[in-house]
Specification:
The complex is a heterodimer. By secondary structure, chain A is an alpha+beta fold. Chain A has one domain (about 5-105): Beta-grasp domain (Ubiquitin-like (UB roll)). In chain A, about 20% of the residues lie in helices and about 20% in strands. In chain A, strand 1 and strand 2 (about 15-20) form a beta hairpin. Chain A is globular and about 35 Å long. The model of chain A has no long low-confidence stretch (mean pLDDT about 95). By secondary structure, chain B is of the alpha/beta class. Chain B folds into three domains: about 1-115 and about 245-310, FAD/NAD(P)-binding domain (3-Layer(bba) Sandwich), CATH 3.50.50.60; about 130-245, 3-Layer(bba) Sandwich (FAD/NAD(P)-binding domain); about 340-425, FAD/NAD-linked reductase, C-terminal dimerisation domain (Enolase-like, domain 1, 2-Layer Sandwich), CATH 3.30.390. Chain B has a five-stranded parallel β-sheet. In chain B, helix 2 runs parallel beside helix 8. Mean pLDDT of chain B is about 95; it is low at about 415-425. The chains are: A alpha+beta, B alpha/beta. Chain A: Belongs to the adrenodoxin/putidaredoxin family. Chain A: One of its GO terms (molecular function) is metal ion binding. Chain A: InterPro entries: 2Fe-2S_ferredoxin-like_sf, 2Fe-2S_ferredoxin-type, Adrenodoxin-like, Adrenodoxin_Fe-S_BS, Beta-grasp_dom_sf. Chain A: Keywords: 2Fe-2S, Iron, Iron-sulfur, Metal-binding.
């Protein structure tokens, strides 16, 4: 497996090309590239600080969110049923090369 | 600023707090050196999975890194590994490493964490008596949780119960010995303890309360555990989860104020203005309850690290976040915001029989803490109410059909919570 490249849009609308390595969750790829993703629970779907928006078809292809993730997202800032995911719950897949990841607004 | 560029910020310890300080300084513009000193050699890793996913048979042995290995160098964070800090020379502002070398600091951050409390009984040093703190500890426990193994867990706190759940799942015959009369007594109320006791027992766990361990016996390797009431429990492996002790010796020897933890203020400063402390090792006054506390949690480690970074960068330190914690046992999540007190009024929302409920802790009519079990719907609203300190109607709080925020009956703010409360009304 080779690295994926992500097109990440930060909270100021700036674009970043980010390398995503096969061992990393999507959250880890964002955090290792200094994007302001707090991930304050360490990637265990216990907070919503790694909330991102993905294209609707990508979200659909990832399958169902766990119950914990769904409940955290519903209350999260800017939640969108069709686009929202916790990035710590998105594992590397080759087919996700080139996707666009938009950081959700920061929690208050 | 010349001093900033010549003298580094030295961070001792690379758990969640230490790495978060280093990362925060770098990503938020600290131009000087950042040195992360760690007695271990591992790439710093996430701790929560060690007592959860890591222990499951069939799961990988990897500890998820806090940052990938080459990140540190890429960010200009110098890692000194395999070296402990032996002492602090406060007058010269330098730390002395175990190889005798000196490392000058502009600011020093003690993120030395905590260690597992050892069983204070004969036989605690026998082979097969384990504790869980590091990745290596986790792997050693995992290896011993083989099907059929007789596992005795001492202590029914988060760690003990998480290990017990993993052991049962891996096919071991597991007994938990707890000195108190229920599980997780220090952190939660009877209804929550009762729920988790039922859950664990339904999966085959044997739970023994009032069981004070007096001795471990065996020929080189542990074979049995003795309790003060004269009972004997056969064991192939013993896991002790009886709490942690703060690694404060370095600070103590340097003359910094310590009292079961290094004492820090809201900026995470110790009694030396050039030395900070963050994470498990600290003791501080809760801005919410006024209680002196030591919090062993990733949330506290991360929040305190942020306060350190703010203060080192001369930024204003943000108001404290309500502390929160979680545990997962047999797939059921208990997530807590705030710190309960045994005198709090306990209000159960929802039906524990259905596996999904919350317990709200009211103190003088205000929300002091919440436990959410098997569902997070009340978690964030409750956390917000804890920080605002609004008065709640207990009858409405008890009605799971009423949203918590709709149970507010007035401001009646606590001192310190006034502005936020006023802004909400």
């Amino acid at each position: 497996m080779s690295n994926n490249t992500l097109n990440v849009i930060d909270r100021d609308g700036r674009q970043h090309a980010v390398e995503w390595e096969p061992e990393q969750s999507l959250m880890e790829a964002l955090r290792d590239n200094d994007l302001p993703v707090l991930a304050s629970c360490g990637g265990t779907a216990s907070c919503a600080t790694c909330h991102v928006f993905l294209d609707g078809d990508v979200v659909e292809s990832l399958g169902e969110r766990s119950e914990d993730e769904a409940e955290l997202l519903v209350d999260a800032e800017g939640f969108r049923e069709d686009c929202s995911r916790l990035s710590c719950q998105v594992e590397f897949e080759d087919r996700l090369d080139g996707i666009t990841v938009t950081l959700a607004p920061e929690e208050e | 600023m010349t001093e900033h560029t010549t003298h580094p910020v030295v961070v001792v310890g690379s758990g969640h707090a230490g790495v978060a300080v280093a990362a925060g300084l770098r990503t938020r513009g600290w131009a000087g050196r950042v040195v992360l000193v760690d007695a271990q050699h591992d790439v710093p890793y996430e701790r929560p999975p060690l007592s959860k996913d890591l222990l499951a048979s069939g799961a990988g042995d990897r500890a998820a890194p806090l940052r990938k290995e080459d990140w540190y160098e890429a960010k200009g964070i110098e890692r000194v590994t395999g070296q402990a800090v032996d002492s602090i020379d406060r007058d010269a502002r330098a730390v002395i490493l175990s190889d005798g070398s000196r490392l000058p600091y502009h600011r020093l951050v003690l993120a030395t964490g905590s260690r597992a409390r050892e069983l204070p009984v004969p036989g605690a040093d026998l082979d097969g008596v384990l504790a869980l703190r590091t990745h290596q500890d986790g792997l050693a426990i995992k290896q011993s949780l083989v099907p059929g193994a007789r596992v005795v867990v001492i202590g029914a706190g988060f760690i003990g119960m998480e290990v017990a759940a993993a052991a049962v799942k891996n096919g071991c015959a597991v007994t938990v010995l707890e000195f108190q009369d229920r599980v997780m007594k220090r952190v939660t109320s009877p209804p929550v303890s009762a729920f988790f006791e039922r859950l664990h027992r339904s999966q085959g766990l044997r739970l023994e309360f009032g069981a004070a361990v007096t001795e471990l016996q065996g020929d080189g390797r542990v074979e049995r555990v003795l309790t003060s009431d004269g009972r004997t429990f056969e064991a192939d492996v013993v896991v002790a989860g009886i709490g942690v002790l703060p690694n404060q010796e370095l600070a103590e020897a340097a003359g910094l104020a310590c009292q079961d933890g290094i004492l820090v203020n809201e900026q995470c400063r110790t009694t030396d203005p050039c030395i900070y402390a963050a994470g498990d090792v600290t003791r501080f006054t809760s801005p919410f309850s006024g209680a002196s506390q030591r919090l062993e949690s990733i949330q506290n480690a991360t929040a305190q690290a942020e306060a350190v970074v703010d203060d080192v960068l001369d930024h204003e330190v943000k108001p404290s976040e309500v502390p929160w914690f979680w545990t997962v046992q047999h797939g059921v999540r208990l997530q807590t915001a705030g710190v309960m007190h045994p005198d709090d009024e306990v209000v159960v929302r929802g039906d524990p029989e259905r596996g999904k409920f919350s317990v709200v802790y009211l103190r003088e009519g205000r929300l002091a803490a919440v436990d959410t079990i098997g569902g997070l719907a009340d978690f964030r609203p409750a956390k917000k109410l804890i920080s605002t300190g609004l008065l709640l109607d207990p009858a409405r709080v008890a009605d799971p059909g009423v949203k918590l925020e709709d149970a507010v009956i007035g401001t009646g703010p606590r001192p310190g919570a006034y502005e936020t409360a006023a802004a909400l009304v």
